[in-house]
Amino acid sequence: MAQTTSRDNARVRLGAAGAAVTVATVVTNALAYVVPMLGARRLSAADLGALATVLALAAIAAVPGFGLQIAVAAHRARNGTGDTARLGLRTAAVTAGVTLAAAPVLTVALRLPLALTLLLAATTFATVFSGRWLGELQGNQRFLRLAAAMVGVAVGRYGGLVAGLLLGRGPEMCLLLATLTGLLALPLLARLASPPAQPRPTAPATSRLPAVDPEQTRPAPITGASRLGARQVMTACGATLAMLTISYADLILARQLLPAAASGAYAVGAVLTKGALWAPQVVTVLVLPRLAQGDRRARLVALALILACGTVLVVSSAVGGELAFRLVGGTDYLHLAGTAPMFAAVGALYAVVFMLVNDRVATAARWPAAPLWLATAGLAASATFIAPRTLTGVLTCSLTAAALAAVVMAWLVFGPRRR
């Protein structure tokens, strides 16, 4: 009876954690969408283009932050502790330094104001450094605090931009405010990630037990656990970059290979892909610490949940394809309703792939994202040289690449014996 109650309580806590992380993800995405919506109404076309370009560069520059988070989370889950301050500071400083060095080139090549590219380096530092505390919270499975930290990062990253746009300021002032709010969010993250206070035990007055060295009461580190360093962060960064690249490769190819109207239609359909991709990502966030500990049951449960979510989304898009395109793009795109299940299937397959890539990163596998780079190259080659240059042709290539990547990743995770 007690064991059943304990399991029920664990399920309730896990459900609450999942709901909190889901809400945090929705808030983050909502703030990210508010910025271009406000910018379109508050800025001139030239200023909007400059701000959108800088935000795209900021998304690329934030990749080391995601890599840092994954590396720290996996290490914390395996070891329970470890110094992440210097590694986090070094990762953020190097990323900001590279961005700063590239500022003159970006200014000339993309016709941007120098002030914007210089501020990009500052806001990049705050975004990347926040990955340290997010990783600690995720690795320690403190998911409610992780959700609060995710909201704090989102408000810090986009809050200044929203405030600047509402005040009618230009791109430079908006990005300056975003830099300030991003830096101000860091102390909040540090507070959220601080270890919980442990009550100091007091021995009864009549106790005759000998004093215990506190160093001897600490849990022993897991045998064979690797030290957290730049190599782990670089591996996680490479995997994150591969996931980002393959998820946008079809959009880029559609822009290059299709007429303008067809390219725009593909972009509308890709919204369904992104929805199916990101909808179950909360499962990956919650299961990552268990993956780092080699929990096979957690891996199977996570995979089943993601497959179930993807199946529901694909079936729903098949039944309500017209409604989906009406909501996403309007009545001009209703003729694409028949492709809705294919767009959703691409995202559902990539959701599976991304969970398996995270599993490979968490278990310190070599070259965890190699299949994704190969799939991206195959997608580009087939869409350029083999498939017809139509929306359906590019979409078929994307679906095939996603399916092959899922099969290869599943074989790598479940096929060979895990050492």
Distance linking N and C termini: 36 Å
**DSSP helix fraction:** over 70%
- Poorly predicted regions are 203-225
Order of helices and strands: HHHHHHHHHHHHHHHH
Structural domain tally: 2
Count of alpha/pi helices: 16
Outline: globular
Q: Main beta sheet: strand number and arrangement?
A: none
The SS-based structural class is: mainly alpha
What is the arithmetic mean of pLDDT? 85
> Could you give the count of β-strands?
0
- What fraction of the residues are assigned to beta strands by DSSP? under 5%
Radius of gyration: 23 Å
What would you say this structure looks like, in words?
There is one protein chain. The protein contains 16 helices and no strands. By secondary structure, the protein is mainly alpha-helical. It has two domains: 14-193, no CATH class; 230-414, no CATH class. The two termini are 36 Å apart.
Name a few traits of the molecule.
mainly alpha, 419 residues
Describe this structure in a few short sentences.
With 419 residues, the protein is mainly α.
How are the secondary structure elements laid out?
Layout: H1 2-42, H2 45-61, H3 63-79, H4 85-101, H5 103-109, H6 114-139, H7 143-166, H8 171-193, H9 230-257, H10 260-278, H11 281-292, H12 296-319, H13 321-328, H14 340-362, H15 370-385, H16 391-414
